[in-house]
Design a protein that fits this description.
Number of strands: 16
Order of helices and strands: EHEEEHEHEEHEEEHEHEEHHEHHEHE
Helix content: 25-40%
Structural class: alpha/beta
Number of domains: 1
Shape: globular
Protein name: Arginine deiminase-related protein
CATH superfamily: L-arginine/glycine Amidinotransferase, Chain A
Strand order of the largest sheet: 15-1-2-16
Largest sheet: 4 strands, mixed
CATH topology: L-arginine/glycine Amidinotransferase, Chain A
Organism: Nocardioides koreensis
Radius of gyration: 19 Å
Number of helices: 11
Strand content: 15-25%
Length: about 350
């Protein structure tokens, strides 16, 4: 097990998950998401939803067991099939910055939730919320940390160009939040553009997983590799076949041991974990422990564990020095708020 001697800006110690009770693969996103699949023929919707809920709960429990602080919000709304993927509409950043993003599919735009923002403001120090969602009527989109894979240490926003990642919004985000944009083309072997950068790349503190072979421009491929390794980070190169198993859709988090010591984990699906070669696993485990969960139902929607997680890169509030907080606010300022297992109930 890898113990963290310091807190990494790359690996958040808290996350937001959405427990989507009416999950189904979203028909509105199937056209450009080559990773999305249909529910098996004959499988009842109730069975699909029950399986997805069990998988969501398993991810939340695995992260809690690893010592990660988990904020779970219930969602009973049947019109939000993709709400299990909150990282597309929100990201948080050191210094109290929060971004809210414009979404490509119209039926995803009401995934944005005021109660999530209110929880962040009550439990963490939020200074500024920058909302780009007003760009949607102009057909301009940037789907959060799905569209961008952020190096929070070197301040680089790696972005595969797509209809869901407009480079003009990318430049605005980078100016507002202090990142360097690094945009590139990424395609599969059939020439289909990658719909989200986070399916082909994951950046950790000391290791990065990326399918460089899916960047066709050799010069740009070399630049991406060089930028990733400038601070000594190890690059684990993934194949397109591994990307189709969601090996790139992972995220580094900072947990704690039962004794309270910090540790880094790499959260991914069991399917992704199984696709890795032994030497790739060894390279990852030089700096963090792999925590994997089997989520085959959720992966039908074209995303995996990384897509399910919105990391919280904000400083926590000190509740004991906030005497003006009401009892109602204090009730949601616990590690496991409202319900015993840490869920906020969506009224």
């Amino acid at each position: 097990m890898f113990y963290a001697p310091f807190v990494s800006a790359q690996a958040p110690s808290a996350v937001i998950l959405i427990r989507a009770e009416r999950f189904i693969p979203n028909p509105a996103t199937a056209a450009d998401n080559a990773f999305q699949r249909e529910v098996p023929v004959g499988q009842p919707e109730d069975s699909t939803r029950a399986s997805a809920l069990a998988e969501m709960d398993a991810v939340a429990q695995a992260l809690r067991d690893a010592g990660v602080r988990v904020h779970v919000f219930d969602d009973k709304d049947h019109t939000r099939p993709d709400s299990v993927f909150p990282n597309n509409w929100i990201s948080t950043h050191a210094g109290g910055m929060v971004a809210v993003y414009p979404m490509y599919a119209s039926n995803r735009r009401h995934e944005r939730r005021a109660d999530v923002l209110e929880m962040l403001k009550s439990q963490y120090r939020v200074q500024t919320i920058v909302d780009y969602s007003g760009l949607e009527p102009d057909g301009i989109f940037l789907e959060g940390t799905g569209a961008m894979v952020l190096d929070h240490v070197s301040r680089v926003a790696y972005t595969a160009r797509s209809y869901r990642a407009d480079t003009h919004v990318l430049e605005r985000f980078c100016t507002d939040f202090g990142y360097e944009p690094m945009a590139f083309e990424a395609v599969d072997s059939a020439g289909v553009p990658v719909y989200h950068t986070n399916v082909i790349a994951c950046i950790g503190t000391e290791v990065a997983l990326i399918a460089l072979e899916m960047i066709p421009d050799e010069s740009r491929r070399r630049q991406v590799r060089e930028r990733l390794t400038v601070n000594g980070r190890t690059v684990v190169e993934l194949t397109e076949a591994q990307i189709r198993e969601f090996a790139g859709n992972a995220v580094e988090l900072c947990g704690r041991t039962p004794e309270g010591r910090r540790r880094y984990i790499m959260a991914m699906s069991a399917r992704a974990h199984r696709s890795l070669r032994p030497e790739q696993v060894a390279a990852i485990e030089e700096s963090c422990e792999i925590v994997s969960v089997d989520i085959p139902t959720i992966e039908l929607a074209g995303g995996s564990v990384r897509c399910m997680i919105a990391g919280v890169h904000l400083d926590r509030r000190r509740i004991d020095v906030e005497p003006e907080l009401t009892d109602a606010v204090l009730a949601i300022n616990e590690d496991h708020p409202v319900t015993a297992d840490g869920r906020y109930v969506d009224a």
